Amino acid sequence: MAEIIDGKEVSQHIRKEVSEEVRKLKEETGIVPGLAAVLVGNNPASEIYVRNKRKACGEAGIYSEEYKLPEEITESDLLSLIKKLNEDEKIHGILVQLPLPKHINEAKILRAVSPSKDIDGFHPENVGYLVEGNPRFIPCTPHGIIKLLDYYKIEIQGKEAVVVGRSNIVGKPVSLLLLHRHATVTICHSRTKPLEDVTRRADILVAAMGRANFITGDMVKEGVVVIDVGINRNPDGKLTGDVDFEKVKEKASYITPVPGGVGPMTIAMLLWNTWSSARGSKDS
Ligand code: NDP
Hints:
Blueprint (H helix, E strand, L loop, with lengths): L2 E2 L2 H23 L4 E7 L3 H17 L2 E7 L5 H13 L5 E4 L9 H7 L11 H9 L7 H12 L8 E5 L6 H10 L3 E5 L6 H5 L4 E4 L17 E4 L3 E2 L5 E2 L4 H4 L5 E2 L6 H20 L3
Parallel strand pairs: 1-11, 2-3, 2-4, 5-6, 5-7, 7-8, 8-11
Antiparallel strand pairs: 9-10
The structure holds NADPH dihydro-nicotinamide-adenine-dinucleotide phosphate.
The site of NADPH dihydro-nicotinamide-adenine-dinucleotide phosphate has 25 residues, from helix 10.
């Protein structure tokens, strides 16, 4: 039976650490880290995420601003706002909540964010640094996953890591981080055949596919460490991950629950990156 990886507990530790560092930075330099969250349209899930992120900023002593923009905003107006935030000295991190409406070119917007304020780590310049193994900002969810493994002293070096999902936000960056920590990494996607032959090889399995309860007990081997990134809503409204938790926990050595696993870590690492950006700004 698996030990449950408690993302709430680990994220609390990190948030405490960030609060302490924010306090020290202010004391020593007068700099207060600042985050601007940009939200376009009325996506209820995005509104909740942004509200939680701002609340967490407040608790960590981080200044935050929210820009709630109408669905119909033009791309050029959004670009003007980003330009203004790029130049604003109070702001060290800019977060553009995804997804954006269809008429806005997401890649163009993400590239407009100054790489030195791109605390999500989505700008191609920061992706390049990550690929090199010399990251400036590590994307928050993948960063949180590595912190969870480290907190539980789970060895990464030399292990077979299998990542299901190849998105730019989760699958690809977490694969790179595992590779940099000397795991042997396989990345799977919707055309991997047969998926279970690959997942059964995993010592560390990261499920980031967005398919409720897809990873079943017979797709994993005894003793696997399972990190479930998925956030799916059941027809009854309950949140569930990509992993069949009840069955897989019987075979795994460690497993993250949903909710309470990876989710809280994402916010903690966002605070971390905002503080780290502000700290960097004192040297530039
Ligand atoms: P995307 O939809 O961008 O990517 C999903 C990936 O899963 C794709 O690469 C896709 O393959 C792959 N996939 C889908 N179905 C299958 C399948 N049947 N077999 C194998 N691979 C499959 O999602 P994200 O990476 O943005 O998010 C993944 C999940 O993580 C979502 O549930 C999301 O809500 C959650 N999430 C959670 C966060 C947290 O803080 N806990 C943060 C970010 C995301 P292909 O490329 O071939 O289409």
